Amino acid sequence: MFDPVSCTTQSASTELVDAFRGTAKRVLKDLFDLEPESIALSDVTTLSDLSGHAIVGMTGALSPRAWAIGVKEQVYARYGISCEVDEPLIDLLVRLETADHGVRLVRQD
After folding, report:
1. Which of 5, 36, 51, 60 is buried most, with the most CB atoms less than 10 Å from its CB?
2. What is the C-alpha separation between 40 and 97, in angstroms, rounded?
3. Cβ contacts of 71 within 8 Å, gap of 6 or more
């Protein structure tokens, strides 16, 4: 018989975010020139939560739609993976991390 493991959802999500902190740092620096320490990251943080930040390489004021399109284009151009700005950032980080190791995950909606 196994002993039950006590684990709260909060601690599990914190550990998951911490595990991808290096990848998050790279993505936030590449896309927005931000440090993860300046953003409250959690398992529900999305790219759209960062909509007030300028995208590296894009100048001028952008409408919310143009900003979202710009982010999606930058993610694809830099990392070769597609994303949605309203998906959890952790999902993007997992796909990016696995792609870096030669594994491609395909989203099935």
Report:
1. 36
2. 20
3. 31, 47, 55, 83, 85
21 within domain boundaries: yes
**Domains in the chain, number:** 1
The confidence band for 65, taking pLDDT boundaries of 50, 70 and 90, is very high
Please give the Cα distance from 85 to 88 (Å, whole number).
Answer: 8
The whole-model pTM stands at 0.74
Per-residue pLDDT band at 84 (split at 50, 70, 90):
very high
* CA-closest candidate to residue 51, choices 37, 65, 35, 30: 65
Band (7; pLDDT cuts 50, 70, 90): very low
* 2 domain residue, yes or no: no
The total number of residues shown for the chain amounts to 109
